[in-house]
Design a protein that fits this description.
Two copies of one chain form a homodimer. Chain A has helices at about 55-65, 85-105, 160-165, 170-190, 220-240; strands at about 5-10, 10-15, 20, 30, 35-40, 45-50, 115-125, 130-135, 140, 150, 195-200, 210-215. The first copy, chain A, is α+β, with helices and mostly antiparallel strands. Chain A has one domain: Glutamine Phosphoribosylpyrophosphate, subunit 1, domain 1, CATH 3.60.20.10. Chains A and B meet through α3, α4 and α5 of A and α3, α4 and α5 of B. Chains A, B: This is Proteasome-type protease. Chains A, B: GO terms for molecular function: peptidase activity. Chains A, B: It comes from Qipengyuania benthica. Chains A, B: Keywords: Hydrolase, Protease, Proteasome.
């Protein structure tokens, strides 16, 4: 499994992904699922991937044209005039990669080569944008109503984002929110695992503002994980008490 | 979909279930998923069901021998000497019901007739017990390590139970905890819906201590739903802040 979240706030974009891949529970590896390309001062583009690892790696390799000699490579993402076209190009590659594998494998491989991709970034002169690309190659864009996308194991970590998100929050608070969401997911699903990759992209900077790999011994992650349990219990006890003997009257 | 939780605490058993059934999003109905039978002073047995509605209704109807004349009916659950045997009988019925339907439908119906059942109760002279019965008819029992079972849409509401559960909590707090867990689930999955059924079974009472149907306008549910959002935001802001510029040092 996988868990990746991309979130858009007023001040920019915050992205977090886990690094665990598994084929069964007894075959676990660490693979990066977050990739970025930038032209300092002009554009920054980040993608996070979920789904079949061979498929998502093939998509990223093709983006970087790794089948060519290094000096002949030409990353299409660095040429696309808009983020919309960046998402289109990635969608096209995803669809082609998946349908090629399915053709080669016939019915036997049907449905096994999936991939979902979160695309985030900003190009000079335009707003920061956030997209989710489906295995079929089509995609949707985040909006004020739906300002974040999750892929992979999305459920455990969703309620806190729904409750905690605020478009005007600081980038630091956005990191804190994603840290809590990942902590809840890690506690519940073994197939999502540390280390995590974090990336913060401030609006109009066109470069990575901050990135970090959060490992097992990361003091901030440990502090959040510990204090979130206490904070949740405090929150729980602050709620109105239930009574068997009278209807609740708001007192 | 469905969401049901059964939880065992020192003081007894607390159970909650939703009532929504759906076949697609445009065909929604309200059906009770919580059923109980009691012999006052001797035993109380409650079951909650998830899965294919025709299958779970067939199991409950057979438990009550509704194919017979009313005065010839003999509920096997009221004769079983132990809760273990109650769970066995239910498991047998589930397996027989499912395999009968599958035989009748052949390959075409394969895998469609599922049912998971939570069984809770107490028989005089023994401890309160909590079981989860699988579609295959086998079952597991709750323990100190795993003191609650969820069936249906289990993920959204799980983190708060993991964090908030305490074996020594009051029955009222147990109700509060399940209310929060259901609120998180309802907010995230349309196919889990109000009204909810709540049942509290105090240890050694052998009857329903408290039951209630929680409807859309239930003041306690509304109070929890509103204040939980605020309490979560307060909890979130009480956590240590993230900083881009220095490693977290626990200050």
């Amino acid at each position: 499994m996988t868990y990746c979240v991309g979130m858009i706030v007023e001040k920019g974009l915050v992205l977090m992904s886990d690094t665990r891949t598994n084929s069964g529970v007894d075959n676990i590896s660490v693979f990066r699922k977050m990739f970025h390309w930038q032209v300092p001062g002009e554009r920054i583009i980040t993608v996070m991937t979920a789904g079949n690892l061979a498929t998502t790696q093939a998509v990223v390799s093709q983006l970087e044209e790794r089948t060519k000699e290094p000096d002949q490579r030409d990353n299409v993402l660095l040429q696309s005039p808009t983020m919309f076209q960046v998402a289109s190009e990635i969608g096209k590659l995803v669809r082609e990669t998946i349908s090629e594998r399915q053709r080669a494998n016939g019915e036997r491989g049907k449905g096994r080569f999936t991939a979902s991709i979160i695309v985030a970034g900003q190009i000079a002169g335009m707003e920061p944008r956030l997209f989710m690309v489906y295995p079929e190659g089509n995609f949707i864009e985040a909006s004020a109503d739906t300002p974040f996308f999750q892929i992979g194991e999305t459920k455990y970590g969703r309620p806190i984002i729904l409750r905690g998100y605020d478009r005007s929050m600081s980038m630091e608070d956005a990191v804190k929110l994603l840290t809590v969401s990942f902590d809840s997911t890690l506690k519940a699903n073994l197939s999502v695992g540390l280390p995590l990759d974090l990336m913060v992209i401030e609006r109009d900077k066109f470069e990575v503002t901050h990135q970090r790999r959060i490992a097992h011994d990361d003091p901030y992650f440990l502090a959040i994980s510990t204090s979130w349990g206490d904070a949740l219990r405090t929150a729980f006890h602050s709620l109105p008490d239930y009574s068997f003997f009278s209807d609740y009257d708001g007192e």
